[in-house]
Write the structure tokens for this entry.
Amino acid sequence: MRGKDAVKFFTVVAVIAILTFLAFNPKGTEIPNIGTIPSAYDIRQAADLKGGIDAVLAPKDKDGKTYAAKTEELKQAKSVIEHRLDAKGVMDRVVAVDQVKKRITVQIPLKKGTTIEDPGSTIDDLGKMALLTFREIDETKSATGPVVPVSGDPILEGKNVKSAKYQQNPQTGGHDVALVLDSEGTKKFAEATARLINKRIGIYMDEMLLSAPNVRVAITNGECVIEGQDSLEDAVRLAQDIQSGAMPFKLVAESTSSISPILGSNALSVGVTSGIVAFLLVCLFMLLFYRLPGILACVALLGHTVIQILFISWFNITMSLPGIAGLILSIGMGVDANVIIFERVKEELRNGKTLRSAIDLGFKRAFSAVLDSNITTLISAVVLLYFGTGPIKSFAYTLIVGVILNFLTAVTASRIMLKSVAGMNIAKHRWLYGVKGVKEQND
Amino acid sequence: MIDLYGKRFIFFGLSILIFIAGIIGYFVHGGFNLDIQFEGGAIVSLQMEDNKFDTEKAASEVSKAINKKVSAQKSEMTNPTTKEKIHMLVLNVAEKSQNLSSQEVSKTLDAIKKNFKVKKDTQPEIRNVSAFIGQELLGNAMKAAAIVCILIILYLWFRFRTMSGPSAGVFGVVGLLHDAAVMIAVYTIFNIPVNESFIAAILTILGYSMCDTIIIYDRIRENTKLMRKVPIAELVNKSIIQTLGRSINTVLTVLISIATVYGFAAYYDIASVKEFTFPLLVGIASGCYSSIFIASPLWVMWKQYKAKQPTVSNA
């Protein structure tokens, strides 16, 4: 191995070694000034592995009385909850509507650090289930305290808001929130804004004032902009609060109980063991078929697998048993590109090419096949990410990361290692590449 | 060299046999075996004396008693006043109408009381639930699959334009649909419950199965430039044989990893993982099979058909 090659080779190996350490460090790795890098031990386990919380939520109106929710409204609330959980990475969950008793059942896995006795922050993942209202502000009393009092019935409720989005004002560059109302809301809002020109309308989450914009003109088309938030963060938070408060009613947890893991306590260790065994078997296969390049492919595969684990942990994606099966599947798929390339290298060697040119040609000629097959997989993953919710989304994330890593490790890591090693005299035996009985030709 | 193309009708026939078996399975088992997630149903909670009961056994006893699909879980609640722990058995019963008749409820109770210690004087709490995986998710999955197919056709069209792209794309997707159909047949033949992992498994195959087809197409693309005089059937046959090692080995590595998971799941009897990995095993094998024996020969047949058309002058 020449000096330059040795540096390259050991750099790749060192990077993979460091990543492996990060992924399996039980306490996570603390890096000063940056934070802790979570490891495999920090992955949030799904309800099927670790159990979780089962909450029954009942719709209430603004006074806390039972609210007779319509089926449509319950469905709307269900999808609001689902989108919130998606945003938090809680992909493994059950959100179901009881149409007979007008209840919503939510089952979510326990967050790390919370217990069945004290589910506190796990329930927080569901977000605010308060009622959002737009109310007229009683200007005569506003001087009395920080919370601006209200008069009259709500002008709008959360269910009237179709969407709330952040936007930047094209003229002033200020931070605005754009609202779109439904048809009922449009009518009510047109009437109220006509009446309240130059007065303020308060936006409340239960009794908490979020914002109190001034009405400039009557808004009749159901689209309005709340202008002039202090900062980008303020505007985005207001938009999120309004959007997530677009719940048709308030939801109160009637009862919460814990659920045991469906799969029993040994399921996780079975999953992990089968992962390790699968990894070793794939390595053995690669070793037997491709010998020297096979070993290097296994090193690259280790890199691939640990980066994927770090990714899952970093983005707080919940891991269910099918999720583990998916991860193991990607171990099998991870050597895909390597197989395509090594077969090509073998073929070139059989055609009588020298080792160095066979490796170069192998990578070059296999590249189009590797690229095309990865891009088609990427196409399906991206479409799934766009359309899916819950389990499909988490699956799509893992798939995308897997494909990109597959490409990176096979085309770069394996290649760098193989080319450096091939420079060694001892690595020049063609047997090491799974080819025999062919004489080398001159290039 | 083996003439795979000449034997193509044997392979087509084999696939058709699997489809027929799938259709028979569908009617024998009375449709798909939908889980509570897809169908909706009732969640029955019962207070128990202690938490030493076997959920698997509870599920199978109730399932026998009312002849419906049941899964069981343990649950725990703390009594807000006495701070005592309440142990509960939670049964998820799949039922389309989302409502259990009073007869079914009492049969359920009897089945549990006969086998386990139920707390005295407790009434079961019943929640009716609509399908968790609503039409929305299923509809989205279908939409996603359709868009995936179209995008793949467009991409292959562009990348394989030297071997008349659009038809290569279309027959590649025909291979995909073949694999999806084979997997659905596996679900009906073996009466495997259809739930979230069904969607995940089918989508995995949609994402993966194209790889083998591309390996072959890639070689056809390369060979088209090298062997201009060789007739199309022979060229494709050669390309398949040349890439056979790659095709088989890429599939083998995936099969090794999935079969390991299946083996562990079977040994420890973890039904949900078995039900997820078995269709995947079949789907991945089918993905390799379809690119070699279905997609490529069909594409050749199409090319030969086009070549015979007098209006087409690309000969």
User: Anything to note?
Assistant: Chain A has a mean pLDDT of 78.
